[in-house]
Write a structure and sequence with these properties.
mainly alpha
Amino acid sequence: MKKSKPPQSSSDDTSPPTTEAERHLEDLYCTAGNALAALLKLASAGDESAVHTLNNLLCEFIYEFYGAVQKRPEVFRKLARHQAGWPGFITVDKDWMNGNAALIKLLQLGEDAPYKYQGKQSETNNNPNVKIVKLLVFKLRARERARVRQWQGYTENKNRVPTTPKPPELLPPLNKATYTQWYAAMLPLLERHYGSTFEDHPDFARQKANALASATAAGKKKNSAKSYILDKLKQTLKTMAKPPTKSAVI
């Protein structure tokens, strides 16, 4: 089985593992990842014993993880502030729901993330552009991390060295001061994912109808659906981005 590759929690983390401790941590990640992947494969194939084993294992570790966070929140908060999500239980138990809400506050979850998660948020149900923007930003972030991993030159060889003489040029942290750079980088991904005539894709049906209605209301014979959609996507990205902060990361 192919070894798992450790994720990068920040685009600034571009140094390949050089110390014995770093290599040991990477080996632990790969070993645990491969074991879980094997259980997941069995469970997905219908093995009920594997389903129970995987469920029990994950629940046990999430419970222990929860306890570790409660004991040393300052250690985990450094990462949690930059993320929108955190490992936890999906539950119908109200006590656990309240515990999850308290954990979010304890960790200050998402407070330094690029999107605005406090107060009123842009939601997919109310604005279909939000779903598309989130998808494209996700793809951009994945591409950025892939560039970092490529530079790090992860291979099966323990003596890893960078494959290029210097780190790759990455997008700056996403915020209201840099969203135009992200928007420009999104455009090629938009056409790659939806096609050059993306305005005809079902995901843009509502926006295309709005473009026609806008043109009719303005007394125009025609209004470019493509231009209308691009303008709305750009506005949505700007709305979703937070003001620039010194601690924000991709």
